[in-house]
Amino acid sequence: MTPGRRQRVSISLLKSEWDYFSKLNLLQEKYRTPSSRHTETHKVFIRHVDEMLQRHLLFRNSLQEKLSGDEQNRALGDAFLKLTTQDNSAFCDAYLGYTAVLATILTTEFCRESN
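C-alpha cells predicted for Rho guanine nucleotide exchange factor 33-like:
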C-alpha cells in the first residue's frame, strides 16, 4: 500500500471511529436511565455499550494521536493493538455480548414503535 493510500485509509478509519463512538454514545444515553420497561437484557446491553465506549474512545484517541505525530506508518497497527490486547478476552466478550443483545433490543424497539 502506498503511503498516500495508507494515509487516506487511516483518516477514513478515524472518521468512522468518530461516527461509531457518536452512535454508541446515543445508545448509552437512550438506555442509561432505567425505566420500568427495561429488562435484564437492557442492563446487560448497557454494560456492553459502556465497554465498547471505553475501548473505542481509547482506539480513536490513540489513532488520532498517532496520525498527528511522526509515527504515521505504524499508526493503524499500533492503535489496533491497543484496542484489542489490553484484556483480549474482555474485549471479545463485550463485543459478542453487545452484538447478541443488540438484536433483542432492536426487536423490542421495533415492536414497541409499531404498536
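The mean pLDDT is 80.
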